[in-house]
Amino acid sequence: MNDNNNLIVYCEFEDGKVADVSLELLTKGRSLATQLGVKLEALILGSNLEGVEAQVFPYGVDVVYKVDDARLYPYSSLPHSSVLINLFKEIKPQVCLMGATHIGRDLGPRVSSALTSGLTADCTSLEIGPHKDVKTGKEYENLLYQIRPAFGGNIVATIVNPENRPQMATVREGVMKSEIFDANYKGEVINLDANKYTCDADYVVKIIDRHIEKSKVNIKNSAIIVAGGYGMGSKEGFDLLYELADTLGAEVGASRAAVDAGFVEHERQIGQTGVTVRPKLYIACGISGQIQHIAGMQESSIIISINNDPNAPINTIADYVINGNVEDVIPKLIKYYKKNSK
Fold first, then answer.
1. What DSSP state is assigned to residue 50?
2. Count of Cβ atoms closer than 10 Å to residue 288 Cβ
3. Helix (H, G, I), strand (E, B) or coil at 136
4. Which end is more exposed in the chain, N or C (fewer Cβ atoms within 10 Å of the end residue's Cβ)?
């Protein structure tokens, strides 16, 4: 295999399926690869990968690397890292994307540090563009702009990696949108032998048994979300939100400040350090709207903000702003909705 300079997405594989976050990255990867004039490649490691390429080809994948070996499933750090490190030395991709999941957070740093390539975690946007080094005056074309909030969210930073390859970035689930590129798209499948890329020492840790508790909260797929911030004041304040959500058939979400204050559990956190959502209706109650929170909900179809601060940042992206105290406004919303929905 020669130096191909392509864009590769590490695809997570669980229960016979490629993870949603990986499909989202393939969608983004397809448009970036087209811009760069290179191939989009997918890398899938696991066991029983028969026919898995059919799950990814519709996203515009040109090459699927499959490493099918019983020892590679479920995920464990050493063999997966070795496969990526050794394969990347061989095929030299210019960009590698992976999900900012517990797997991506473990794998990304191991691979980037072994290849001394650098990594930007939790990107909220990825673009291609030029860069000029101020010190040396050297100009670069077609670099990956790795964009994320920085310094506590006070700025949005654009990070570039001019020299080292691959340029690596992780992205959270839900930040990018997954869309079929062409249902009939067909690429090439390359089967790789795990033994060529790993050594016996990589398999010293064996997974004997594992239990995965499914989350009971499903805000990601909810059409209506009632979200509360620190302005809800207390755990009891959130009871109002549950009542409103119940009335509307909605799910309850929260800002990080509300979660940190112990008003509500972490599974409901929306934003840069929580989940990204795109509901039809988002009702933000007592949320000031820090950049990290807005990153997780700005693509909601309709945003209603209920806040006693007319200058709250969230009001600038809201379609409707109700200026008032949440404890006065929400009971009225519940009352009127119940009255008019009969």
1. T
2. 19
3. coil
4. C
Structure confidence by residue, pLDDT tens digits, 213-262: 766 778 988 999 999 999 999 999 999 999 999 999 999 999 999 999 99
Q: Give CA separation, 243 vs 190, 254, 286, in Å.
A: 53, 15, 16
CA distance 107 to 88: 14
Amino acid 113 reads S
Query: pLDDT of 159-194, one tens digit each?
Result: 999 999 999 999 988 889 999 999 999 999 999 999
The strand ranges marked E within 133-204 are 139-150, 155-159, 167-171, 188-191
Residue 151's closest CA among 142, 159, 139? 159
Percent of the chain with pLDDT over 70: 98
Strands annotated E in the chain: 7-11, 13-14, 17-18, 40-46, 63-68, 95-99, 119-123, 125-132, 139-150, 155-159, 167-171, 188-191, 224-228, 251-254, 281-285, 302-307, 320-323
